[in-house]
Amino acid sequence: MAFSDVREYTHLTDEEIEAIGRELDEIRAEVEASRGQADRDYVTRIITLQRRLAAAGRITLFASMFPPAWLLGTAMLGSAKILENMEIGHNTMHGQWDWMNDPEIHSSNWEWDTTQPAEQWKHSHNYIHHQFTNVLGHDNDVGYGILRMSRDQKWTPYNLGQPVYNALLALFFEWGVALHDLDIEAIRRRTKDPKLLRKQLKQIGDKVGKQAFKDYLMYPVLSGPSFFHTLSANVTANLVRNVWSYMIIFCGHFPDGAVHFTEEELEDETRAEWYLRQMLGSANFEGGTFLHLMSGQLGYQIEHHLFPDLPSNRYADIAVKVKDICRRYDIPYTTGPLHRQYGQTLRTIMKLSLPNRRTGDNPAPVSPRETRRLRDEERPTRRSELGKWSGAASA
Amino acid sequence: MTVTTGPDVPFACQDDDGAVSPSAVLKRRAIRCALSRVCGVCGETLTRPIAFLGPEDEALDGLFTFPPTHPACARQALERFAPLGDGVLGQRVAPRRWALLTTAGFDLVRPTRRGDAVLFRPNSVLETTIV
User: Fold this and answer.
1) Distance CA A349, CA A62 (A)
2) DSSP track, A269-297
3) The pTM is what?
4) Tally of domains in chain A
5) Is residue B72 one of the residues assigned to a domain?
6) Which of A62, A74, A148, A334 has the smallest number of Cβ neighbours within 10 A?
7) Nearest CB to B44: which of A107, A272, A388?
8) ipTM score here?
9) How many angstroms away from the CA of A208 is the closest CA of chain B?
10) Minimum Cα–Cα distance from A390: chain B residue
11) Which of A98, A122, A394 is opposite residue B36, by nearest beta carbon?
12) Is B51 in the A-facing interface, judged by CB distances under 8 Å?
């Protein structure tokens, strides 16, 4: 549905929307004014912990022919990869730590431990997903181009296989993310600029080569007689990281209550309207400090979408204030235990594998002008521009 | 002034359909530069430190109209475009003096009113040079 039709939003007056915007601005200003040494200590401590875990895991796996060493090494390596991707890499590439002027912990320098090149992630995630959050036809994260995640998306017989595609996406999430910025639809339609495609594929190929060399050749070889055990441990660590990342990311926008939007005046929305769209389109999950750490603080997805470039260690405090704003203005604040949020997401994936008429909760009929599903030819094409590349390719 | 062709127009002043407007920063490009963290002049990934260029007043206010750039791109853009006068680098009227500022980070400031431009606030200024 279009933003102006969202029930959770329409009771607000223009003045109230502006007031919400001002309150959120104040939260942002408070954090900006107070970020300092404690935040710096936090991120350096997490990076040290992650590197020690990775090193301990790699060393332990030298003895991976012994099952306890395999298990322990895999667990440490998998945890290190999760920490690096979720709490460190993702947040650093948002520019959350740029203010420190650290030569390494900076959005322009960080290259993370996964197959997608950082540069392509900064486009597909930071720009496409965060700017066009949950807007069908714009936000490629809505089902990753593989799954039907909204009743407003057209059903085709292909969707019957969603349970299988979903399982495969979870297992091989790293690879799905690696190809995320290619715009598979454009490739399928043969409208993708071949020069641009080659450039992107080369970048992905280089990154995949480095990752594969490190995990599937160098460390297994260094393990000597434990070669195959270390290889299987590294494969397992990557799979564990894939499934975990997939689950956390899918819980951010697909549990019940997170709203999907259709076409609207995205570029001309005010800051307050942008804030509201981010709040309504995101969902949190509850948990302890450890769960939030291993999730890159994405259990605070609402706060992350409101302030993607504020330090992640502040989201817990920000959440208290945001929740209070939502309560006072009667705006939904979607949250729940992780198992419930993921259960709802999984149910949506299963239900939407069937056509709308086969599922029971069709929305009450309303004026067709207000919420009719647009025909495919009326929809915008997916966001496909790619920084300099698209410009260079079209020149 | 909006023209449809032109050499060496900064990335932030070109639209996706090829239209260029040297005197204005295109909002969609500005947002893209900020979030994808690409240079407003060349469109490539930003490096550290990040540079901002604009009228001296913008540097004093700490709010820039032109998106972040590479320091080298900012210097080259000033050399190339500033002597042309009005209607360059997103400025309708040529500033009396240009400023080049370097910073480690910045914040994207979205407009509070429809139609207004997005702005950029350097948050850890390293050096400011008045040209």
Assistant:
1) 41
2) --HHHHHHHHHHH----B--HHHHHHTTT
3) 0.88
4) 1
5) yes
6) A62
7) A388
8) 0.89
9) 20
10) B16
11) A122
12) no
